[in-house]
Specification:
Elements lengths: L3 H9 L15 H13 L30 H12 L2 H5 L5 H7 L3 E2 L4 E2 L1 H7 L12 E6 L8 E7 L3 H16 L2 E5 L5 E5 L3 H14 L8 E5 L3 E7 L20 H9 L9 H12 L5 E3 L5 E7 L17 E2 L11 H12 L5 H8 L3 H13 L3 E4 L6 E4 L2 E2 L1
Parallel strand pairs: 3-7
Antiparallel strand pairs: 1-2, 3-4, 5-6, 7-8, 8-10, 9-10, 11-14, 12-13
Helix pairs in contact: 7-8, 8-9, 8-10, 11-13, 12-13
Length: about 400
């Protein structure tokens, strides 16, 4: 803090750029002009111009050391995806230099950056206690409903992204089989797992890690809400979202892009919306106006209320030569479905998909060929099977 004597000294120096004068003591507009002028005149007094301040994820984390990072994870999993193999083979720099080249380490401060800790930290919550995702499942449609389940997801960015994706697929996504013919079933899903993953990854990437609040991942009886601390950032505005994006944490965004978790070209949200509409959920609803947060709501599709229009066996199958599709064994139906879905597949791949010995698969393939339902095409070495009919 400046002493009274130091302030008087600065006032006396008419050329000083560390003080700004105003002619009024009551006019707030004059005060505003003085503050703006002062902010534009900040010199190199251990401060930075606003335009040159780096993003938070690039700041040195002076409380952390190299030992706080999982270097094995960085070298084994991240570097091979981030750097061309030929370039990496000739890279003889020490690990600090490698980390620094990707903005995970600050050489001047000799410590990891915030991004380095978040991406590869052993114990991230030791440094950033609220860097986690809080999942809650409610029994009803309101936040005061009974809580059925809750858990926290935390860890380095790479592991966290994988855990969230796995949890979503195993615990949130539900499917129901719908017969589409005498032979095949299709599935309807309550949510698009791709869309949920996209919005969760966006939350990890765009949240403010300076706000003392976790990402909220709430599942209600009829919807999912994902709320991350920190609203739209930079050039992104409610009126231009999602067509314009800006990155609060560009280094973290690069980590998720390198690992294949997100698309960094503003297409992820648009694609997620398309997936939701295609799945029957309707477009997601965004909360762009609540101060300090960004929220997205995804409505659940009630798959139990979808009617099953069961058609008579063979009604939607076009075939000739009097083919009989009835009386097939379950294994024959499974093989038919695989071949119909992937024309040209060979018996080895069919056996891998169905987890059956190739010899067993070949026996039923022979039976299906004798019944005229499938045929072999192509060369003996590179050929495969296809069905002799098409579904309308």
């Amino acid at each position: 803090m400046l002493s009274k004597e130091k302030i008087q000294e600065l006032i006396a120096d008419m050329e000083s750029d560390r003080i700004e004068r105003t002619t009024s003591t009551t006019d707030t507009d004059k005060f505003g002009e003085a503050i703006c002028a002062f902010s534009n005149d900040i010199a190199n007094h251990k401060e930075k111009r606003t335009a040159n301040i780096t993003t938070f994820d690039e700041f040195p984390f002076t409380r952390a050391t190299l030992d706080d990072l999982d270097i094995e994870l960085f070298k084994r999993k991240y570097l091979p995806k981030a750097i061309d193999s030929k370039v990496l083979a000739g890279d003889n720099r020490d690990v600090k230099m490698q980390l620094a080249s990707l903005r995970f380490y600050d050489l001047r401060s000799d410590c990891p950056t915030v991004a380095g800790v978040l991406a590869f930290g052993h114990n991230i919550r030791l440094f950033l206690p609220v860097a986690y995702v809080q999942y809650v499942k409610f029994e009803g449609k309101e936040i005061y409903s009974n809580v059925i389940a809750d858990m926290q997801f935390h860890g380095n960015m790479i592991t966290l992204a994988e855990d969230l994706d796995r949890f979503t697929k195993l615990n949130i996504i539900k499917k129901r089989p719908i017969p589409v013919s005498a032979l095949f079933e299709d599935y309807v899903y309550n949510y698009s797992d791709w869309a949920i993953r996209e919005f969760l990854m966006n939350a990890l990437m765009h949240r403010s890690y300076e706000i003392n609040s976790p990402i909220k991942f709430y599942q209600y009886a009829d919807r999912i809400e994902i709320i991350n601390p920190g609203g739209l950032y930079g050039n992104a505005r409610p009126e231009n979202f999602p067509h314009v994006s800006d990155y609060r944490n560009p280094t973290l965004a690069e980590v998720l892009r390198v690992m294949g978790s997100v698309n960094r070209f503003t297409r992820g949200v648009t694609t997620a919306q398309q997936e939701l509409i295609k799945n029957g959920n309707g477009a997601a609803i965004f909360d762009l106006n609540t101060l300090g947060v960004f929220g997205v709501t995804i409505r659940e599709k009630n798959i139990e209320e979808i009617p099953v229009d069961y058609q008579n066996p063979g009604d939607n199958v076009k075939h000739g030569n009097g083919l009989n599709l009835e009386g097939l064994l379950n294994i024959e139906r499974e093989i038919l479905q695989v071949i119909y879905s992937e024309e040209g597949i060979n018996r080895i791949k069919i056996s891998e998909i169905l987890n059956k010995p190739p010899r067993t698969i070949m026996r039923y393939i022979t039976s299906l060929r004798e019944k005229g339902l499938i045929e072999f095409f192509g060369t003996l070495k590179h050929g495969g099977y296809r069905t002799t009919f098409k579904l309308s």
